[in-house]
Thymidylate synthase
Amino acid sequence: MEQYLNLCRHIKENGVIKEDRTGVGTKSVFGYQMRFDLAKGFPLVTTKKTAFRLVVSELLWFLKGDTNVKTLMKEKNHIWDEWAFEKWVNSESYKGPDMTNFGVRAANDPAFKTIVEEQMEIFCSKILSDEQFANEFGDLGPVYGKQWRSWPGNDGQTIDQVQNLIYQLKNNPDSRRHIITAWNPAEVDDMALPPCHSFMQFYVANGKLSCQLYQRSADVFLGVPFNIASYALLTHLIAKECQLEVGEFVHTLGDAHLYLNHMEQVETQLEREPKQLPTLILSSDKNSIFDYEVEDISLVGYDPHPRIKAPIAV
């Protein structure tokens, strides 16, 4: 995973300081590309432990067209909690302590962080136990899964981009239109978070399937390792269904940034030596990409360095 570490070094050495919507501030570069040969191992970062199970459950959540965090919480996946939590604490229904700019404040105030954690625990409990509450505050709007599986078309019809992609890969592999987009200008303002990984194109050559992702905004320390693994996994799943081998995952970044409160963590990671990449194992009895459950997907040989914690910017 030298490609990823080189990106971190490139931002540290060449990035510019920019303000951002979270108030944290970033060091940023614009326009960067990484390439991963998927035949040489599964590209999961080894210089810090990355929770592959969370990558899997999130991707399957997208593929099912789901947009409610309740499904993820049932899988003990909490990577989207903050955006749903923000919706609740900004509503008239919320009666607890002031949560204005809770992400930044918690990162700088241990006492307030404890308060946020207490409110988050209440929130998660209500999502899992109260269906009406989950419907109101757990849904993130028309985010990735909605756009992938039911893009709003004409006359009330919807477009299943994933199903259409698989059909075209099987029947017209040389097409230059193997595209899925999550960026829907008509609905972007209704999303809890506009899609960061927003546009992907697939390519078939010599019996191998490759994928290029365009990511408009990339949180390089926390988000990008997940994004690399997620789209590498998606490429493997689609290739298997289409009876193709895997080729490359090409990751093209727009605004690639390190948050200023992640710099120490990045330094720690850059001091570590990368380890051998793991091997992806997919259940042999699944014929459709839509049939997979978390237990059907695993890694062999993943032996990373310890996890490095860092605050998320909301």
About this structure: The two ends are 27 Å apart (CA to CA). DSSP finds eleven helices and ten strands in the chain. The chain has a mean pLDDT of 95.
